[in-house]
Amino acid sequence: MSLASERRAHLAAQPELLRAIQRGIEKEGLRVDASGNLAATPHPAALGSALTNPRITTDYSESLLELITRPLPDAEALVGELTDIHAFVALRNPAEPIWNQSMPAHLPPEADIPVAWYGTSNTGMLKHVYREGLAWRYGKVMQCIAGVHYNFSLPEAAWDGLADGETPQDRRNTGYMALIRNFTRHAWLPMYLFGASPAVSRSFLQHAGFEAQLTQLSPDTFCLPWATSLRMSDLGYKNPNQSDLQLCYNDLDTFTARIHNAVTTPWPAYEAIGTHRDGRRIQLNTSILQIENEYYSSIRPKQTTGRCERPNSVLRQRGIQYIEVRCMDIDPWTPAGIAIETCRFLDAFLLFCAVEDSPLFPPPGFCRESQDNFAVVSREGRRPGLLLQRDGCAVGLRDWAQEALDRIEPYARLLDAHSGDGSHVAALELQRAKALDPELTPSARLLAALRDDGREFHDWTLAQSQAHWAALQQRGLPAGTLAAYDAAAQASLAEQAAIEAADTISFEDYVARFHAALGDAPAR
Asked: Glutamate--cysteine ligase domain: from which residue to which, for each copy (predicted)?
């Protein structure tokens, strides 16, 4: 029996472990006006405080909502709650639909893109200044690209049969890092299957300066003809200074040591900007990264943080709690931006990544081959005969995709044995069809819809967004659920006010304490 078979048997013999798998979603989306232009209004008070509402906050821009579910035990409940949150926003802020596409709506001049505001507390100002720093470093336009983050965790007891280590935390850390390596090896696969951003409007390209690199599909629409995800390509959101920042996915200690180094090492271009202008702070520091979350990657190890705690420090202290998949595009055909079937496939895929053997990457612990595969699939994943690299050898994307899906199938069946239906295998079969026929992928469907409808990318996306918005309003919410969301919104406003009233130190002192919370450089 293979190692993977033994591990699957371990899980199959303890169905309570599968029942204890948790998943959550953080879904971003721009608020727009009736014409599909970026909303210039403040974060709606009816949605609560962006600082303290656990379900509705903002990402980079004041106009970029982030809707957050609880960790939940199955995909149906997960998408149900995410749809409920969307419905609440639609009911309480009906005039501003959420743009249901990863690539942005029509944007105003960069100076007029509002940076998210979280109030006057030190905690809120830290979040705001970090985002101001992003604007100085990378510009505001790229920060308006939106996506879906998928969080996934296995119960502590599951790692006893899946990973080595002296303590439960050691086994958990080893197991999640192995999952991350396997995900990295196969990250091109969800890009091919779910990438849904092959096109953009001219206005985005004019802001971003990429117009010459794309093909003009119609007067206002540009694309890469074989692309799956411009968002995740080198045309999308990326941090140029991070190109040489190669993190180690072989062990958590080295991973956190390299993050610590990036957060504490000055970068000349950012030193030239400085930390203050006209008497106010404009970035948190002049390091390669202001904070750990500035590092942009397709997957992250995560641990819940409290106020003034640092992600790197809590990872070292408490270990990895869950992983966050960050490469999912918004699905423009679903009101919540992600389909139940997609979640079911991701669960099987991530379980596969956790259970299958995951050899260490060669020194320095970073896989350039996997990064290159991810990049080429983002830009031209549907190109006929496309070849990827696997262990130094060329392999056809179509062949590798079918092989990978065959290996994922036992995990879909394992989840179905727990759920008592065939929903995970059915979700996997939908992906098999895409592997055989690229025209079934979301990226191909989107380009076909633009050609068939004869509409611009902006107009098509606006129509989709408005139709979803109307459906969400018509769907509504049960009275009790609506009241609970209203109460949570009001409570969050009160909580923000209490935080603001409780501050006793200056913002500069608070920033100094925040930096000190990073601690000394960990041993490598």
From this structure: 14-361
